Amino acid sequence: MLRFRCAAASHVGLVRTNNEDSGYAGAYLLLVADGVGGAAAGEVASASTTYVTSSVSMISDDDPLAVLAQAVEFAHHHVRDGVEADPQRDGMSTTLTAVLGNGERFGLVHVGDSRGYLWRDGALTPITRDHSLMQMLLDSGELRPEDAEDFPYRSVIARSINQIEDPEPDLVLLDLRCGDRILLASDGLTDIVPDDLLGPTVAMPDLDAAVDELVSLALAAGGRDNVTCILGEVVEGDLIHPRGRMIGAAADPHNLIDPAAVRIDRVGGRRTAKLQAVSTGADPWGHTGATA
Known about the structure:
The protein is of the alpha+beta class. It contains 6 helices and 15 strands.
């Protein structure tokens, strides 16, 4: 059975006062979500999307791409319900980049401009393509690569998980093998740290030291945004409990729209996920589902 050994780190950066990034690192799921800067309640959108995706991943004995597609759909409806419950959240949205395994196969879901990389045989290769205005202009030839660094709208994304539009995720099967490493990161890292510095850091023997060094590189480059790094190495081992670690905004339960929104049932011997309406009653942390 294939799974991840993993490490994760998130930092508010040197400029912003709150962390709108969320992350999750577990044996079968790696995830980063970046609440879109400037939008209302970005930390709520990223944390709640992380929560929904990690919950739905508990049914990962199914096709990982089908599970990820359902997670994106659930997250979209959950964000929409969260805005309806609290109109002050109007406009909140988030990116989502995640890799899910079921012990044999791995799937990637990608919406927005948080990035994924594969480290294999000494080379770091992107496995995502930004859904951003800048990437669209680069693809069309309207923006030259040498002008991209100073492009004033580099943070404008073309796709996100939000309350209005149905998400259009990239869904890709990944052919991973033992020893491969996956790096998922918010743009607080990838906008200011070049890929030629990322590769040697991802290759460090100690995963925890590697993610700490990645954050340090972002801070040394100015730390102008939140920075979140998830690093997983594919290993072989027995099936273990899928529960992982939440970081960033997702580590604070007050950022969740409703921590009781997803229920995992067993039907006919198979696990299924159900998205429930946003609760208006008290939750386990003593606040209502309509406030965050």
